[in-house]
Each structure stands twice: as structure tokens, then as C-alpha cells.
Amino acid sequence: MTVDLHGNAVTGASPRALEAYGRALESFVSWSGDARAEAHQALEEAPGFTMGHVMHSLLHLVGRDPSTLPTAVESYRRARALPQNARESLYLAAIATGLTGDFEGARARMGEIATQYPRDLLALALSHTLDYLLGDIRAQRDRIAAALFYWSCADAAFHGVLAMHVFGLEECGEYARAEDAAFAALEMDPYNLRAHHARAHVLEMQGRAAAGVRWMQDRAAYWDRPGASGAHVWWHLALHQLELGDAAEALGIYDRRVLACAPGVSEKIDASALLWRLHLRGHDVDARWARLAELWAPHAEDAYCAFSDVHAMLAFVGAGRRDLQQRLLRAQRRRVAAGGTNAVMLRTVGLPAAQALEAFGRGDYKRAFARLRWLPGMSHTLGGSHAQRGILGMTLRAAQQRAGTRGRVLFGFPLPQLRAA
Prior knowledge:
By secondary structure, the chain is mostly helical. Helix content is 69%, strand content 0%. The relative contact order is 0.07.
């Protein structure tokens, strides 16, 4: 019987294919390298490698960009035609569910695999990713916490498991534990970008901007790398710089690191969030809005991910593109009518948030406030992190201030703790 590095039986793999598969897993859990490229390499080494096709499909399915779906479908089709063991069949059922647009169902099936096969790192990491995309904060912490029993420092991939645990702890407000776990993960692998990222979140949520700048600049050689993950960590550094009042440095990071070359959806999300923060603080970023809106324009009618839609709307509002704003709102309404996981996210948070931003752009601050004031209690269902969703709270307060409204806000958006560094 052929098994992967963690003892899970696989079908149709060669030794070289297994090596590439292991590298892809390592890249995925630590945000290093190119997991999709490594998964493709595994298939070139062994075209009949069922789990290679499964991984390749999932890496293109679980995300925010619908342009990757055809690749996910093709890899799924190939895997389905190959011999499968029981675990691999469970994966195919999870993929089939996800391809219908039911990410909640796919997450449930993936979680069953992770529970039944606790040494299956792919199932664990993808379940954690879906927890994040669907905004299940407690599951981000508890799923990895339960899995730690089956892993130890003797496992080469343990630093990646621990880095996922850091993020779950941070999102649940357990900052001290998260910070300790981040340092432990980085001691095992100082190049673990996921661990760097999670600690950046801790520093952000605690309001330790000066400490964040010092720590990230001192360790930039470890995490500065091409790709969406590297750009996202630079985005966190820009937030720290902005909090310290250094808008020029934040804009420099935007130009050089976040929106350089040909940005994907993840980079455009970070770009919108950073420019909007600068915009709310009164900085002139009009020229940058125009270019960013053009980059978002091909996604105006995706209505595939509510989180992406909100950030596309930020760019369309910033650039004054009423045409693109209306196209996005119409696409969202169609998606709500069609049903599916994203339809639920859109109905509860995505569409009201986009409508609020459109009103804010027109100067109708009372309407923007009225739309946003009811979202805090359910904003987590948008997915993403507290730091990312904080943009809604900032806009709510700006709308309230500009409208001169004193209405009560339901609960409250999570905000960084403004504490000395």
C-alpha cells in the first residue's frame, strides 16, 4: 500500500509524485511556494494519481475567484474516472458538493474526512480555509485545537498546523495564546508566512502598531515573497504604518507591494481595503481609485463571493463609477434569487453592505448608516477576518458622523484594542 507523508493511503502515486504532493501540502499550510504548481507537478509525474487530481481540484475550487472553477471541474472529472479508496471517494463527494455552489455542504463533508482521518493534512487545512471563507470563527479555533492531539513536533508539517491554530486563537480573542503559538511555529520554521501573518493580526487587534512595524520590518527577509500571501502580509504592515500616521509609507506599500504587476482577486481585495481606509482619513487617492476600479470591472457581475463584492464596490464608489456599482448590485440580486451558499451571505450581509457603500458614495450618509447599523451582529458571515471586516465598522462611524445621526448600533464591529506598543 502506498501512503503519503502522514500515513494516508493513496492510489496511483509514484515516489516522485508523492514528493511533489508533499511539497504542495507544505506550501499550502505554510503559505510558501506555489501549491497549485506543485500539485500540477505531481500529476505530471503520475497522471493516474487520484489524490493529486483531488488536491489540484480543491486548490482551484476553494477560493474567491470564479475564473479558477473550470480547472477545478476538469481535475474533478479526471479523478472521478480513476480508481479510488474510501477516503478518496469521500473527497470526490465533497468536491461535487462544492461545485454546486454549496460551500457549507462541502465544508461539512471535508470536516468529516478530517475527523475520520485526523492525520489527513489536506482535509484539515481545507476545512480550516472553508471555516475562514464562511466566517465560522469558533470552528477556526476549535477544529485545529482538536486535531493537535494527533500531531507533534516530530512531524515536519507541525509548524503549519500550529500556524493555523494561531489564527483561530487570534480570531477568538485569545491573543496571548496566539502569540505564544506563533513564536513556537516560527521557531520550527522561520519562513512560515502563515505564522507571520497570524501574529500580524494579533498586533493589529491589540493596537500595537509601533511594535508591529518594528517586528515585521526586522523579519521581512523571512516573509517577503511574490504572490498573494506575501502581498497580504505587506498589507498588514501598511495598516500598522497608517495607524501611526504614516500615510506616505502606506501608499508606498500599496504601489510597490499590493498592486504591483498583475494582481489577482486577493491583491485587489487588499488594495480596496487600504485605499478606503486612506479615503476615510481624508487622503487624496483619486488617481489610484480609477485604475483599481478598472481592475475590478471584470468582476462586477461575478456575485460569486460576497466578501469580494464588498471590496469591488469600495473601488467602484471610490472611483465614482456609478455604472459598475449598479451592475454589481443587479448581479447580487440575481444571485440572491438563485440561492446557494453565497446567496445566503449576500442576503444577510453582502447586499446590504454594498447598498450602504453605494449610498455613502452618493453622499446619502443617513441611508448608509441605516443599512450598516444592523450588520455588526452578523458581519462574521461575510467571511474574512476581524481586521478585514473592520472596514464596515469604520464606514459605519464615518456615515454616522457625516449624517449627524445618533442612532444606536446593534452590538458592534470588532475593533483593534487601542493599546500602547
